[in-house]
Amino acid sequence: MQTSSDRHEYPAHWEADVVLRDGGTARVRPITVDDAERLVSFYEQVSDESKYYRFFAPYPRLSAKDVHRFTHHDFVDRVGLAATIGGEFIATVRYDRIGAGGTPATAPADEAEVAFLVQDAHQGRGVASALLEHIAAVARERGIRRFAAEVLPANTKMIKVFMDAGYTQKRSFEDGVVRLEFGLEPTDRSLAVQYGREQRAEARSVQRLLQPGSVAVVGTGRAPGGVGRSILDNIRDAGYTGRLYAVNRAFPEEQKTLDGVPACRSVRDIDGPVDLAVVTVPAAHVPDVVTECGEHGVQGLVVISAGYADSGPEGRERQRALVRQARTYGMRIIGPNAFGIVNTSPDVRLNASLAPEMPRPGRIGLFAQSGAIGIALLSRLHRRGGGVTGHTGVSTFVSSGNRADVSGNDVLQYWYDDPDTDVALMYLESIGNPRKFTRLARRTAAAKPLVVVQGARHGGVAPQGHAVRATRLPHATVSALLRQAGVIRVDTITELVDAGLLLARQPLPTGPRVAILGNSESLGLLTYDACLSEGLRPQPPLDLTTAASADDFHAALARALADDTCDAVVVTAIPTVGEGAAGDAALAEALRSAAAAVPTKPVLVVHVELGGLAEALSAATSTAPQADPAQTTAPATPGTAAEAAPGAPSAVTPGPSAGTAPGAPSEAVPSSPVQGAAGAAPHAASGGASAASPPSPSVVPAPAGAHLIPAYPAAERAVRALGEAVAYAQWRREAADPGKVPEYEDIDEKGAAEQIAGLLARGQGLTLGDRETCDLLGRYGVHVHRALPAPTPDDAAAAARTLGYPVALKATAPHLRHRADLGGVRLDLADEEQLRRAYAELTELFGKPAELRPVVQGMAPRGVDTVVRAVIDPAAGAVLSFGLAGAATQLLGDMAHRLIPVTDRDATSLIRSIRTAPLLFGWRGSAPVDSAALEELLLRVSRLVDDHPEVVAVTLEPVVVAPHGLSVLGASVRLAPPPARDDLGPRTMPAY
C-alpha cells in the first residue's frame, strides 16, 4: 500500500460496497501505489472521446509521470478513489486541494478541484454519482467545503452528474469551458437525491433476483429427493417462464437433461446468460461455485446451503468471505441458510424455494428471516390457517436466512413501488440498521401498509447467524419508534396474517366507529367487548336472532353501511341448522352484494365453525346459474372452489388510502369461468407438473372489483385486526401533515456549541455538573430551579434564607433520588424551625448528611410530576421520551417515545400517548396542566440534541407541570463525541 513517506496511513474506512443504478454492485476504495498496472489497463479501455472529455485534448495513453501522479496520494490534499468490479477499475475520481488562484494548496484551504473518468462500458450505471457521494464525504472529513469542476460543454453526462447531485451550486462559462462550483454540506435536496438513487438501485438489485430470465440450480441431485433436486422440481412444477438449468459436477459427460431440464456439469458450460443461481452444495464447495457464477456473469445468488454464521465463529468468517467474494463480481446474495424466494407474477412464476407448492397469486408481499416462520406464513396464507380462511395470495416471498447481504431494507425498497404488492408482511429477528429501516418504513407505510412481527425481542440477543449492531433501547421503545414510522406492529404471526388479510381485502376505515350485527347475541356482545378493549367505539350490537335469513343479513348490513355514524361493520354468524353449503353461499352472496354497494367501508365476518361460509366469502361467490361445463378448460378439483386465482395483476397506485381497497381490483376473480381458468396461476400438485385451478362449476365468481370479505374464527382476532387498521388509517391522515420543527428566537446555538467544545476538551465523555448543566440548558430556554447544597443544618438554613421560604429539602443520594415514595423529600417547609426539624428527621431515617447529599430548593407551583429524557442510541439514533415521574411509571414502563427532531405534532401526540395521560388533562375533576408549556419544553430539548449531537443524554426529572407554566426541578446532561451517522454519509452496503 502507501509508502512511509505518505502523510497519512491508508484510510481503510473509506472502502465501501455500493449498489449501482442497474442493481449490480461495485467496490469503492482509495487508489494506492500498487494500482499502477490496474490504472493503465483501465485507461486503455476508455474511449478516445471519454479521454478527450477528461483532459480537454487527445490523450491516447498515460505517461509514467501521469501514472505516478494518479497513484500517489497523501489522502489529505490529494485523494483518488476507484470503483472496482472483479478487482479491476471501472471508474476513478480524484480531488486536489486548491487555493484562491486555483493553484495546489494545503489546509486550511477548503476548496478542491474534482474530476472523473468512467469506462464507457459502465457509463449509465450510476457509477459517477456514487463516486461523487463518496469523494464528497472524504473531502468533508479532510476539511474541504467546496468542489470546483471544469467540464467541456459537450460532456453533458458529467454536467448532469454534478447538476443532479442536489448541492448548492454556482455555474459559469468562460474560455469554452463550463465551471461548476458547489458546497459539500448535505442539503435537504442532496439527501433527497441520494435517498432516491438508493431506492432505485436497491429495488433494482432485488428485482434482478425476483424476476430472473434464467435460473441455474447448482447442486441438483441425479436422484429424486435432496435439497437441490427438490428446488429444481419446485421451479419446474410452478411453471417458471424463463430458462431453467440443472448443474452438478457429478453429472456424466453424456448427460444433457434431467427430467426434461437442461443439465450441465458447471455454470461455465451453460450456453447463454444466467441471471440467478440457486446454490445448494455443501458450504465447503460454495466458493468454487461463486467463482464459476461470477466469471459467467451471473447477477445474483440464492444460497440455500447452511454452515455459515449459523454454525459459530468459524462459519461467521466463512460467511464474510462469501459476501466479499460475491461482491467482487458485482453479485448480490440472499442467504446463506435461506429457505428461498417466490414470485407468483404470471410473467415469472418462480418458486425457487423449499415450499412444495406454489403460493396462490395475490397482493401480499412476505419477508421472513426465519425459514421455519416463512413456511408457517406461506402455509397459513395458503390454507387461511387457524380458521382464517380466504384466498388472498402472495405477490413475492423472500426468506433471507442469515441476512448476510440482502436484508429487509432492500426488500422494502423493492416493494415500495412494486405495482404487484399492496401489503407488506415482515417477520424480523433482528434489524441491522434501525435508523435506515425506520426511514424506509415511514416512506413505505405512507404508500401501503407494512405489518411487522419481531422475534427474539425479549432475549436481547440476535440469532446466531445475524451480524447486527447493538442497541441500548428496550424492545418497547423500538416498537414505539416503529409505530411512529407507520409500521403496524403485532406480536404473533397469527396477528400478522390476520391484519394482512384485512388490509389486502378491505378499504381503510375512516374512523373508530364500529357497527356490530349478527344472528348470535352472545357473539355480538363478545365483539362489543373486544372493540372497547382495542380502543374502538362500538355501537350496541344488533341481534338478528337465529332465525335471520340471508336477506335479513343483507338488509341489516346495507343499513349499517349507509349509516354516517358507522366507519366499519363486523358481522357475526353462527351455523344455521340444515342449510349446509347452499345456505353458506346464499349468506356470502348477501353480504358481498351489500358490501359492494358501499365500497368505502370495511366489512369483517366473525364466524363459528362455518368453513363453507368462509370459503364462499373469500371467493365472493354468487347464486347465479352454473356455467356451461363445456366452457371450462379443466375439471374442478374437490375443495378448490375458492382457490381460483386472479388473472394478471393490473398496475395500481401503491397502497390503499382511506376509502379505497388496497389491491381489491386485482384480487378480484375474473368475470367468467373461462377467463378465470386461463388467468389462474399454476398450482403445484405434489409430485407432478402444475395445472391451473378453475373456478368451481357450482358457483360463478363475482364481478371484477368486488371486495373479498375476510372471515375470522374469533371476535378478538377480527377486532384486533380492525383496530390496527383504524390506527394505521389515522397515521396515514396525520402523516400527510407531519408538522414542523419550530424556531425559537431566544436559542443561543452558537454559544451552546462553544460551551460544548470547551467542555469536551477536558475528555472524551463527561456528565456535567449542576452549574454547567443549568448554563447549557438555559441557552435553549430550559431553566432549572436553583438547588443549593445543604451539608449541615446551618447550611440548609442559609440556603433557605437565600431562596426564600417556603422551601423543599431533598436527599439526592442515588438510591433516594427521584424516590419521593421512600420519604427522602420534605415539602412546604415554611420557616427555619420546620426546616431544621425535617433535616433531623432525614438524617435519623437515612444516615449521615454525607450519605444523603441533601439540597434545599424553592417550592414550585403544585402540578403533575413528569420526566423528559433524550438519548442518542448508536443504532436507532436520537430518541426523545416522556412519562410521568414516579415508581409506578417505571414499574409499568409507561413512557412514550419519538425520534428526534420532534415536530410540533409529534410533541402534541407524545404527551397524549402514555396510558396515564388523563392525569394531565383534568382527570376526576383535577385542573388540566399547561400542555402548551410542556410541548414547548419537549421541542426545546429536541432542538438541543438535534443541533448538538455531542449531547448524548439529557434527563429532566422531575418536571412539575402546573395549570399555568412548569418547573424543571432536576436535570442532568452527558456529553461525548457524537457517534457516526451512516445515514448522512454516502450510500454503502453493510461492511464485511
Gap between N and C termini: 20 Å
How confident is the prediction overall: mean pLDDT? 84
Strand content: 15-25%
Neighbour order of strands in the largest sheet? 1-2-3-4-5-6-8-7
Number of strands: 43
CA radius of gyration is 33 Å
Q: Which structural class best describes the helix and strand composition?
A: alpha/beta
Which shape, going by the Cα principal axes?
flat
How helix-rich are the residues, as a percent range?
Answer: 25-40%
Q: What can be said about the biggest beta sheet?
A: 8 strands, mixed
- Unreliable residue runs: 1-6, 385-390, 620-704
DSSP helical segment count? 29
Please tell me about this protein's structure.
The chain is of the alpha/beta class and 992 residues long. 34% of the residues lie in helices and 21% in strands. The chain is flat and about 105 Å long. Residues 1-6, 385-390 and 620-704 have low confidence and may be disordered.
Q: Any descriptors?
A:
single chain, 992 residues, alpha/beta, eight-stranded mixed beta sheet, seven-stranded mixed beta sheet, 29 helices, 21% strand, flat, disordered N terminus
Topology:
Blueprint: E1 16-19, E2 25-30, H1 36-44, H2 48-55, H3 64-71, E3 78-85, E4 88-98, E5 111-118, H4 127-141, E6 146-151, H5 156-163, E7 169-174, E8 177-183, H6 188-210, E9 214-218, H7 227-237, E10 243-247, E11 257-258, E12 261-264, E13 276-279, H8 286-296, E14 300-303, H9 313-328, E15 332-334, E16 340-343, E17 350-353, E18 361-368, H10 371-383, E19 394-399, H11 408-416, E20 423-428, H12 434-445, E21 450-454, H13 475-484, E22 488-490, H14 493-505, E23 513-518, H15 521-533, E24 537-538, E25 542-543, H16 550-562, E26 568-573, H17 580-597, E27 603-607, H18 611-619, E28 621-622, H19 664-667, H20 673-679, E29 682-683, E30 691-692, E31 700-701, E32 711-712, H21 715-735, H22 749-760, E33 766-767, H23 770-778, E34 787-789, H24 793-803, E35 807-811, E36 825-829, H25 832-846, H26 849-852, E37 854-858, E38 864-873, E39 877-884, H27 887-892, E40 895-899, H28 904-912, H29 931-947, E41 951-961, E42 966-968, E43 971-975
Parallel strand pairs: 5-6, 9-10, 9-13, 10-12, 13-14, 14-15, 18-19, 18-20, 20-21, 21-22, 23-24, 23-25, 23-26, 26-27, 27-32
Antiparallel strand pairs: 1-2, 2-3, 3-4, 4-5, 6-8, 7-8, 11-12, 16-17, 16-19, 28-31, 29-30, 33-43, 34-37, 35-36, 35-37, 38-39, 38-41, 39-40, 41-42, 41-43
Helix pairs in contact: 6-11, 8-9, 11-12, 14-21, 15-21, 16-17, 17-18, 24-25, 28-29
